[in-house]
């Protein structure tokens, strides 16, 4: 269950006139709270601010966002040492019609929910993926952002109910590998790392960014580029990243299986050293 | 101002947990109420039902939808003889995550707002369009439906604030003409009528359907097919359709101008005979 706060005050409802309800006119962030503090906070705020600028949305200043999260954490029933905080920023209430009026104030919702704990085996042995039939449309104007328009992810996630499948990978309408419904994906082929470019569709995850920056600092090359689906099957190792679970090795996807190797464990170690310690203790 | 009703009861709020807020996981209809009754009601219900089936959403039965609209009309302050009713159907409340749980009941919101009256000159002399820079992504899985994921329309509508421009036309990412932000478009070239196929993106308007059926009954051919932007400029006459205003001649778009001719007036007459009498008396 998620406890919701509106503009920092407990309150679980949104006006029906809100443009989040009407058009999905907004953005969100799902933030891991660890030891009482938002993890990768700067990246979450940057993505929200960049997205707001691209959509023409007003966004509260960074201290106000932080205050909203902390007010929610302090007030929520959920243990706030380790949990999930969700920020929803919408264009606010408005009259009927797609046109935004200049005088609307943005709506800032903050939700706090319990963090899901994955079994140690997921980190050790890897998780099962599936390849979704739902494709992501090519829309550079929205690519990278975590907008409130998420029907493609909902449709992709509705393709399976088998709990042994942890995540579904989605291709774009041209057949390139883009990301999972709630994660980004990395391929390891020999010594080479790659992750799909998120320029035409998909979400640029904060954990993806963190992994890329750690790799860069460690002088391990990771190409950010278009990835064909054949490369996915040909890869030696595949892993997925997400703000909550960090990184997880992928064990199989359909008939394809991968072996978790040394390179993945090195990335995992880098992540652990950086303070993202989600794996087995 | 829109007055909102939740499941038929007055109440202007939606749970923050609602999947309309979280993901835009739902559909809507904007219905013209004329002489106290919903116009083109069957088409609105069919589109909602078809969309719900495609998205895997539960949808109330037709009499329940009608009852929700009438309860809202009877209770609303707005004059309910001539107004706008909006139905929002969402996947309902759910826990965090894209996955829909089987036990969620759909949320049905009904809004009532005053109908906008367009000046007689809009019907007589035509309206000014603009060509939007925002393109519609090719997503056959969502094409035709009026989903709550409307960021493309919001971005397209945010391109202009000049009130002399009535509507913006949007192309798809391949450059084909698709529709307006809130309307469909028809081209008249010589004796030939055409309207863009809505198979890869765009919304299939109920007024577009009504016009197509009237033309078919009158044995006037109208091709439903891909339309290149060059054809738009080469057309003799262009008009737009929408559930509220019926049809409106387009006078110009950027440097291109069209002349409202006899064929348009014939379509307008067919529409008036069918009971859609929005134009000058």
Structure description:
The structure is a homodimer of 281-residue chains. The first copy, chain A, has 2 domains: 113 residues, 2-Layer Sandwich (D-amino Acid Aminotransferase, Chain A, domain 1), CATH 3.30.470.10; 154 residues, D-amino Acid Aminotransferase, subunit A, domain 2 (D-amino Acid Aminotransferase, Chain A, domain 2, Alpha-Beta Barrel). The relative contact order of chain A is 0.15. The two termini of chain A are 27 Å apart. The first copy, chain A, is α+β, with helices and mostly antiparallel strands and 281 residues long. The model of chain A has no long low-confidence stretch (mean pLDDT 95). In chain A, the strands form 2 sheets. In chain A, strands 8, 9, 10, 11, 12, 13, 14, 15 and 16 form a 9-stranded mixed β-sheet that branches. Chain A has a 6-stranded antiparallel β-sheet with strand order 2-1-7-6-4-5. In chain A, 27% of the residues lie in helices and 30% in strands. Chain A contains 8 helices and 16 strands. The interface between A and B is large, with 57 and 57 residues.
